[in-house]
Amino acid sequence: MSSAKKFLAFDLGAESGRGILGQFDGQKLSLEVVHRFPNGPVQTLETMHWDVLRLYGEMLNGLRLCAAQHGGIDGVGIDTWGVDFALLGRGNTLLGNPRHYRDPHTEGVMEMAFAKVPREEIYRQTGLQFMRFNTLFQLLALQRDRSPLLDVAESLLMMPDLFHFFFTGIRANEFTDVSTSQLYDPTAKTWAYGVVKAFGLPAKISRGRCSARCVRPSRRRPASTRHRWSSRRRTTRAPRSPRSPPLASRGVHPPGGPTSARGRGR
């Protein structure tokens, strides 16, 4: 398969992660697991977090292993479950370790939310199934607890897009990632600004790009990832919850490529 296109997908599950190399020669697709690593929430006192920097390090290791075994690749993408997110502050500073969807801090938040905005109105604007770990309710839990993170947050990135930001330096949310948040308006095809405003959430977190359009990686990339960068997204809609398709990678890719769909939590 010397002439085959090679794409590396990182699939992060609830307990483990893996790097899967896909090679396509125009007729046949072959898949090979090139790296495996543990993944699970890290608990500090009563709070559960993503161990994002270690996971990013594992992905860099996976890229190195793949390059050593198979040479350069044509693209890379990351697949995680939906709903979880990171907040970035001034200078694109990561504001703490993102909360894990299993964290109990969202208990009781849905009832509080419906007392302020009727559930029918939220559903009308977002069309999403109600689950207490949806991004909206995670943000409302932070608001209820008077978290200082909301005061200094400049932007919000869904988890796969946080890792894409680490790789490329580009802040952009893919719309099917955002569609798991209960903050996306599928009719207007943008953030559900009415929901954000109704709950008094910081408007800045919904100002970022949120579309199906492709984004080019920055010319300046980490020295540890000296590969050709141009992955393509897959169109695999996940109707079930909470698991997303393992190879529905949300990669960075050249303009004109297809879009991908996100799953819910796992």
Q: How would you describe this protein?
A:
This protein is an alpha+beta fold and 266 residues long. It has one domain (5-251): ATPase, nucleotide binding domain (Nucleotidyltransferase, domain 5, 2-Layer Sandwich). It is built from 8 helices and 13 strands. The strands form 5 sheets. A 5-stranded mixed β-sheet has the order 3-2-1-6-13. A two-stranded antiparallel ribbon has the order 4-5. The two termini are 34 Å apart.
Task: Provide the descriptors you would attach to this structure in a database record.
5-stranded mixed β-sheet, 26% helix, Nucleotidyltransferase, domain 5, 266 residues, alpha+beta, 8 helices, two-stranded antiparallel sheet
Task: Summarize this entry quickly.
By secondary structure, the protein is of the alpha+beta class. It has eight helices and 13 strands. The chain has helices at residues 52-70, 109-116, 119-126, 135-144, 149-152, 159-168, 175-178, 193-198, and strands at residues 5-12, 16-24, 29-38, 42-44, 47-49, 75-79, 85-88, 155-158, 173-174, 184-185, 190-191, 210-211, 250-251.
For the record, what is the CATH homologous superfamily label? Answer: ATPase, nucleotide binding domain
Span of the ends, CA to CA: 34 Å
Biggest sheet record = 5 strands, mixed
Number of domains: 1
Poorly predicted runs: 213-266
Radius of gyration: 18 Å
Question: What's the CATH topology label?
Answer: Nucleotidyltransferase, domain 5
What does the overall shape look like? globular
Percent in strands: 15-25%
Strand order of the largest sheet: 3-2-1-6-13
- SS element count, helices: 8
Task: Give the class-level CATH name.
Answer: Alpha Beta
Percent of residues in helices: 25-40%
Q: Give the mean pLDDT.
A: 82
Output the structural class: alpha+beta
Query: Would you list the SSEs in sequence order as H and E?
Result: EEEEEHEEHHHHEHEHEEHEE
Number of strand segments: 13
Instruction: Indicate the CATH architecture.
Output: 2-Layer Sandwich
